[in-house]
Amino acid sequence: MKELIQAIVSPLVEHPEEVRVTSKEEDGRITYTLSVNKEDMGKVIGKQGRVAKAIRTVVYAAGYSQQKKIYLEISE
């Protein structure tokens, strides 16, 4: 899943080498934290959060078969 998130986000940003994805698993849920360069934050979020929503939709659909709730957080 980390590779999928990186593959989606890297082409969108100016500094793809600074894209980091970490995961934390706890009872029944997996939280992925995406961190990007401060300058790229607007590109990842998009106008009115549309890009972020689209990324989350793809990640949630890909994780549907894992029988766990998937969350994606975006941070600097």
UniProtKB/TrEMBL annotation:
A Gene Ontology BP annotation from the UniProt entry: peptidoglycan biosynthetic process
PANTHER family reported in the protein's UniProt record: RNA-BINDING PROTEIN KHPA (PTHR34654:SF1), UPF0109 PROTEIN SCO5592 (PTHR34654)
HAMAP family per UniProt: KhpA (MF_00088)
Record family assignment: Belongs to the KhpA RNA-binding protein family.
Protein's recorded name: RNA-binding protein KhpA
Record flagged with keyword ATP-binding: no
Function in brief: A probable RNA chaperone. Forms a complex with KhpB which binds to cellular RNA and controls its expression. Plays a role in peptidoglycan (PG) homeostasis and cell length regulation.
Signal sequence residues: none
Lineage of the species this protein comes from: Bacteria, Bacillati, Bacillota, Bacilli, Bacillales
GO molecular function terms attached to this record: RNA binding
